[in-house]
Design a protein that fits this description.
Elements: H1 3-20, H2 41-64, H3 73-90, H4 98-116, H5 122-132, H6 136-140, H7 153-161, H8 165-171, H9 175-192, H10 195-207, H11 213-219, H12 221-236, H13 243-259, H14 264-282
Helix pairs in contact: 1-2, 1-4, 1-14, 2-3, 2-4, 3-4, 4-5, 4-14, 7-11, 9-10, 9-14, 10-12, 10-14, 11-12, 12-13
Keywords: ATP-binding, Nucleotide-binding, Transferase
Protein name: Triphosphoribosyl-dephospho-CoA synthase
Pfam families: CitG
Length: 283
């Protein structure tokens, strides 16, 4: 297998492992639809099959790209929109992974580009994603006018609270993944050798800092800050590595179902964490 084709395989693996992780509070798992009434595990598998087809294409696009990184975003977006259309066909209009397409097309475009230059590493992917998206927050959020019709979740959250969400995350080079998700995943995996437990642990770490506009749009800013606080408390008692930590995760899951909370943005960043982990180990 060509290494450039391996990039897409690792991306698909990362997404499948994320959705298979259990018990994720409020999120779709093989055993629960979480706080979702319109999606379940089977729908995510169907949706991920669509994404997997696009991942090979975007990896090759990055590998063959000859321009400047700061001009890569428009063609990446065009490729992503084609896959997004197909995703909506397969899911009958349910938005399973639109944000994930944006995130992974950036990472795979960057990864293909770096692979060609023999500079592929998590740190360099972080830097390349930042270069590709330089100025995106100001350009796409700073110019929004109040009263504009059909605002996205991210636009709405920025207007109300000044929170930049996934745009800010990618423009800064995925700091939540690099500084929390990846180190905490590695720490847990070193101690447990268990992908499921380590993924769950990394998710909680990500939730303690991620600007998750999914939570804010569904539940409001106060709930969002409370989720971060609770996730931080779970980490402080050891997360999945201790019995009190696991009990708190189970309790959080119960609360999220009652309150209809879904940390979907954090789930996307967990998929990104797994992808960078596999890149480091296998490419």
């Amino acid at each position: 297998m060509k290494k450039v084709d391996l990039l897409g395989e690792l991306a698909t693996r990362s997404i499948l492992l994320e959705v298979s992780t259990h018990p994720k509070p409020g999120l779709v798992t093989p055993f629960s639809p979480g706080a979702h009434r319109d999606m379940d595990f089977t729908l995510f598998l169907k949706s991920t099959a669509v994404l997997s087809q696009g991942f090979k294409e975007v990896s090759h696009f990055g590998y063959n790209y000859k321009g400047d990184l700061n001009k890569m975003l428009p063609p990446l977006r065009k490729l992503g929109l084609d896959v997004e259309d197909r995703m909506f066909q397969v899911t009958n209009g349910v938005n399973t992974q639109k944000g994930l397409i944006f995130l992974f097309y950036l990472m795979l475009g960057a990864s293909g580009y770096l692979l060609n230059k023999r500079r592929l590493s998590p740190k360099n992917i972080s830097s390349a994603v930042s270069k590709i998206t330089a100025g995106i927050t100001d350009k796409e959020l700073g110019t929004i006018k109040k009263g504009k019709k059909s605002l996205s979740k991210g636009e709405n959250t920025f207007l109300k609270h000044g929170i930049t969400g996934i745009r800010g995350e990618v423009e800064k080079g995925l700091p939540t993944v690099m500084e929390l998700g990846l180190p905490e995943f590695k720490k847990a995996y070193e101690k447990t050798q268990d992908l499921n437990k380590s993924s769950l642990h990394a998710l909680i770490a990500i939730m303690s800092k991620a600007e998750d506009t999914n939570i804010i749009s569904r539940n409001g800013i106060d709930v969002y800050y409370n989720v971060q606080k609770k996730a931080d408390e779970i980490l402080k008692v050891g997360g999945v590595l201790t019995t009190p930590g696991m009990m708190k995760i189970i309790d959080m899951g119960t609360d999220f179902l009652k309150m209809n909370i879904s940390p979907g943005g954090s789930a996307d960043l967990l998929s990104a964490t797994l992808f960078l982990y596999f890149i480091e180990r296998e490419v």
